[in-house]
Design a protein that fits this description.
Length: about 375
């Protein structure tokens, strides 16, 4: 092998590819199929997964988030009297040890995230349409509520938009703003984060308006920090936006349908993600049981639809791209499986690896470096 060829092969790998990971899956436990958070060991060098099993028994850990230091994991409990739990990660076994749990002031917490320092945790309450902030102590435990915002208002759908429904919390790359898609208001609310107090204050302007009846659910920041893509649940559209990082302001570029032309069934967008290189965008569609694939134009941030790939199951509520950018894991809530796809880095297309993980009612997935 020539020296030049050796260098070329080395350049094709990223440092993340030489590490091993544990993939944790948040689930719904109200069906009695699941008992909590499940885990698999993952080696990106060969794409192989090995089951760890039940990492922690806990009720409805719908969405998970990992501390920046990789030592702690947090879960929201999506139920009326929900809350947030903190777990310590056992680096050897991958099991989780409960540290403490704090009760939500709002109802039905459905999503959470940590700021870039790991000092503050934010949660979205779908049921009550509110946002909460908690301090994270050095030992990983959560403190009492440090910030709370109650959304008010409604939109045009009488069945689903009679009141606010905060559906996600997303910290800006510079750690200054918190963006909150609210399905009930058809708005992405924007808050300034007080990093000393852990409180939230409305930005100016306080929100970005989505087309009425679309119901924004989740969003993704582009790696360049200048673009934001919002996935709507009820409309199943992707809204591409320019993002002014200095002011926390979004400006629409275009709105594109995530479903194929001529589709007449139920619309239900779920999750959205961008590959680490910032070239491709993916969105899951629950009723269509597929992942939509888009190319991102480097010049203006616009999208080109590249088609759809079946998720190999029913109701793909959650999916995630692994840290190396080589694999996409699609969790099918109603068929109790997670299908593993290899990502073609040149075309963005997805190909099943043949690996299917048994996870009951999967709702979210996160990766932790081992």
């Amino acid at each position: 092998m020539t020296i030049l060829r050796s260098f070329a092969m080395a350049a094709a790998f990223t440092p993340a590819m030489f590490a091993q990971y544990v993939a944790y899956f948040g689930t719904y436990t109200h069906t009695d199929k699941s008992k909590g958070i499940y885990a698999y060991r993952f080696d990106p060098a060969d794409g192989k997964f090995a089951s760890i099993g039940l990492a922690a028994e806990t009720a409805n850990p719908a969405f998970l988030a990992v501390h920046p230091n990789g030592q702690f994991l947090y879960a929201v409990h999506e139920q009326g009297d929900g809350g947030v739990s903190a777990f310590a990660i056992d680096g050897q076994s991958g099991r989780l040890k409960l540290l403490n749990r704090v009760k939500s002031r709002g109802s039905g917490p459905c999503h959470l995230t940590l700021d870039k320092t790991g000092d503050w945790l934010f949660a979205a309450d779908y049921g009550s349409g509110s946002v909460e902030a908690y301090p994270v102590h050095k030992d990983g435990t959560l403190g009492e509520l440090s910030g709370f915002v109650q959304h008010t208002g409604s939109s045009i759908n009488p069945d689903r938009q009679k009141g606010p429904h905060a559906h996600g919390v997303f910290v800006s790359p510079d750690n200054r703003f918190l963006l909150v898609p609210d399905l009930g208001l058809d708005k992405v609310m924007v808050y300034r984060i007080d990093r000393a107090k852990g409180s939230l204050a409305a930005n100016d302007p306080p929100f970005f308006k989505i087309a009425s009846g679309y119901g924004p659910r989740h969003l993704a920041f582009h790696p360049n920090g200048r673009l934001v893509y919002v996935l709507t649940e009820m409309g199943a559209r992707v809204v591409a936006c320019r993002y002014d990082a200095s002011a926390g302001v979004l400006q629409e570029i275009e709105t594109i349908d995530a479903l194929p032309a001529g589709y007449t069934g139920v619309r239900s967008g779920a999750e959205i993600a961008i590959d680490p290189a910032g070239r491709f965008l993916y969105a899951s569609l629950r009723e269509y049981n597929s992942i939509a694939i888009f190319a991102i134009h480097a010049a203006d941030g616009k999208l080109t639809a590249l088609g759809h790939v079946s998720t190999g199951g029913k109701t793909p509520r959650a999916f995630a791209i692994d840290p190396t950018g080589a694999y996409l894991l699609a969790g099918n809530e109603n068929s109790d499986n997670v299908v593993v796809f290899r990502i073609d880095r040149k075309t963005g297309q997805l190909a099943p690896t043949g690996s299917t993980l048994e996870v009951p009612s999967p709702v979210s997935v996160v990766f932790v470096k081992k």
